[in-house]
Amino acid sequence: xxxxxxxxxxxxxxxxxxxxEEGVSEALAVWQGKVLATGSxxxxxxxxxxxxxxxxxxxxxxxxxxxxxxxxLIATGMAMGWVDASPAAAPTLAALMKQxxxxxxxxxxxxxxxxxxxxxVKLDTGRHPTRDDLDRAAPDHPVLLTRACGHVSIxxxxxxxxxGITETTAVPEGGxxxxxxxxxxxxxxxxxxxxxRAAMPPAATEExxxxxxxxxxxxxxxxxxxxxxxxxxxxxxxxxxxAYEMAKLSGRLPVRVWLTLLGDPGVSIVEDCWRAGLLSxxxxxxxxxxxxxxxxxxxAGGRTAWMTKPxxxxxxxxxxxxxxxxxxxxxxxxxxxxxYQMVCHAIGDGAIEQLITAYEKALAANPDPDxxxxxxxxxxxxxxxxxxxxxxxxxxxxQMAFIHDFGDSYISVLGEERGLPSYPIxxxxxxxxxxxxxxxxxxxxxxxxxxxxxxxxxxxxxxxVMQASERLSRxxxxxxxxxxxxxxxxxxxxKGRLVPGQWADIAVFDNDxxxxxxxxxxxxxxxxxxxxxxxxxxxxx
Length: 541
Known about the structure:
Distance between the termini: 30 Å
Domain Amidohydrolase: 53-538
Keywords: Hydrolase, Plasmid
InterPro entries: Amidohydro_3, Metal-dep_hydrolase_composite, Metal_Hydrolase, YtcJ-like
GO molecular function: hydrolase activity, acting on carbon-nitrogen (but not peptide) bonds
Number of helices: 19
Protein name: Amidohydrolase 3
């Protein structure tokens, strides 16, 4: 117990889960934004002085602030103003088109309409919407409707015209332009989406800052105090770095952010960041440069994740390989040699194979036993690939919300044998691979409760059990969401547990996540209180 120090804040009379090794305590004291001590309410009361603020938790359950290991903060904030095309908001094609039509009625003629969140497997039609569907809903506006995964979009005629896309347009490498009977149907996958995005007016810096602030406050309301922005530069290039710095300086950065730099050839911001001295680790605990992101494939539900065996019912489709091996290996080695941690997107076993090989070669040429290169998503690894990850110190960074949102889609496109064991977080935990978790928002909602429920039960939103042997215990699930999220960012010394010296980032819930029935975690849990560095930043008591 610290002698002679008066706590600034005491949380008392609660069930405070400090970490998987540390367990639960009743009370916690904060000094200078960090955890000063934990223990019984009686013990911690000894640190109370005349100026100490005391919060009575009234028996409620608290954890370290949750860490979303992979989302798109700016994109999430901006998409909060778009048409909500999610299955909850638009369960049928007609409902989805009405949403687009209603937005067109309130949008200046010729203005862009953006929509996001549909999943064709969950629509009543069981198919992707088409250019014709969108033309009927909004004939006078360019429309881009993006699938939940972000790897597939549908453009209407006005959008295709503004982008200069015709039936004879050359398909970009790592992209798909959809045709039906030789005519454009509006379907654009992977790199082909960039053709339409390039035709849109660029986002102003103030819009980017608004997105950061809006999404960050939304995360705090769920108990998430830290996140990774998974592709800084994807919306507005290097200007996003400036927006983050301006948000921080003006007090409009609500959460801790680990910046992942977009490194894809042709759109990379890595060279600009390198020249500005923005290397992995640059910054402070609120805003720090993380790693470099390169996309190697697409999404499984969109049938664009690169697999070694074809998708069900499509014997010629193994997904999309975004880049040739030599190019991936060259980019990974160049960034590795400059000291960057790599956090590359690979979902299918084909892409995972390509990425592990590139990491292994870079590490063999320039060893670093603690670089912690990550595989983002890492959905469908083979057992021997898991073993190679362990040997090379490579971390899987899955988003277990995918099991809840897309598990049934995986079964429909891959079959049960390949779909059920996807995202094998139980295997990774047993192997000591320190898996983290997140949402990939706006792909999935950043709401942590479907994520926790999926880790504990392996159930999809429909109730399908996706290989029960991959379930985690409650403590393991919370560890993935806190300590291992910090570990994946090389930040385990400063956050992720509630122990003396770490930041007092704390989430308080109205449901005991260690003891409550699993179904109530999903249906009946709210975050009541969030603290960042010992300050209350969200209060719904």
